[in-house]
Write a structure and sequence with these properties.
It is an enzyme of class 2 (transferase). It comes from Curtobacterium caseinilyticum. The strands form two sheets. The protein has a four-stranded parallel sheet, with helices on both faces. Strands 5-8-6-7 form a four-stranded antiparallel sheet, with helices on one face. It folds into two domains: 3-123, Phosphotransferase system, mannose-type IIA component (Rossmann fold, 3-Layer(aba) Sandwich), CATH 3.40.50.510; 130-239, 2-Layer Sandwich (Histidine-containing Protein, Chain: A), CATH 3.30.1340.10. It is α/β, with parallel strands linked by helices and 240 residues long. The longest helix has 14 residues, at 12-25. The chain is built from ten helices and eight strands. The protein has helices spanning 12-25, 46-55, 69-80, 84-89, 97-109, 114-123, 128-132, 173-184, 200-206, 223-235, and strands spanning 3-9, 31-35, 61-66, 90-93, 158-164, 189-192, 195-196, 213-219. Helix 1 (12-25) runs parallel beside helix 5 (97-109), helix 2 (46-55) crosses helix 3 (69-80) and helix 8 (173-184) packs antiparallel against helix 10 (223-235).
């Protein structure tokens, strides 16, 4: 399934910038910006939103993210004018615009269906405290995190490795997206410094710089392969 993403903002610059940012991490995902009014002012445009949905007509589904309340109202109006089949393809997310778009784009890049993309966007709505509680530095590791114990049974297949970040930007933005995409290809449950390795926002919240120690742990049927793949990716410097 191909999921396209429409970014609706009162500002053309914000909509375009958000799309440009997401494309750095999800180059294959169709993304369209619908920002500002027809005359270049601040506001939202029924025509721009309608044209944006049309520009994503080749996608199996469209996820729309908006910045402010009236953007949702204009989007709802545009949806009312679509025929039933086109309307069924469009899903409006309540996620924060920038964080939600980035998370949704990465989920779409990894092959997620519309439900997975919407769930990824929704994960961006977690409060900063919710994210930081799983990624607060332990004091024992540079950029480390307090491991999260979900209390579940210990799996039979467990693998782990520790590696140092060598790329200049560390585990931020594009490298973090590459890490998530690689982790998502495996069935195993994977963690990096105690947080979910398949969650872009959780990994970016770690703010791991060059030289930080990264501990990768996995459990599940392909745990060792997942760890080996991610270690190789880190050691490669993410191609930077």
């Amino acid at each position: 399934m191909t999921v396209g993403i429409l970014v609706v903002s009162h500002s053309a610059a914000i909509a375009t910038g958000t799309v440009e940012l997401a494309r750095q991490m999800a180059a294959d995902v169709p993304l369209v910006a619908a920002g500002g009014t027809e005359d270049g002012g601040i506001g939202t445009s029924f025509e721009a939103i309608t044209e944006g949905i049309g520009a994503l007509s080749s996608a199996d589904a469209v996820v729309v993210l908006c910045d402010l309340g009236s953007a949702y109202l204009t989007t709802d109006t545009a949806l009312d004018f679509l025929d039933e089949a086109d309307r069924a393809r469009v899903h409006v997310s309540q996620a924060p615009l920038v964080e939600g778009t980035v998370a949704a784009a990465v989920a779409a890049q990894t092959g997620g269906d519309v439900d997975a993309v919407l769930a990824a966007a929704a994960s961006a709505a977690a409060s900063a405290e919710d994210v930081s509680s799983a990624s607060r530095p332990s004091g024992d590791r540079p950029g480390g995190a307090t491991p999260v114990d979900d209390g579940g049974p210990v799996p039979e297949t467990v693998a782990s490795a520790t590696v140092e970040l060598v790329n200049e930007s560390g585990l931020h933005a594009r490298p973090a997206a590459e890490f998530v995409k690689a982790a998502a290809k495996h069935e195993a449950r994977v963690r990096v410094n105690g947080v979910d390795a398949k969650s872009l926002l959780a990994i970016m919240a770690l703010a791991l710089p060059q030289g930080a120690t990264v501990t990768i742990e996995a459990d599940g049927p392909d745990a060792q392969d997942a760890v080996d793949t991610l270690v190789a990716l880190v050691r490669s410097g993410f191609g930077e």
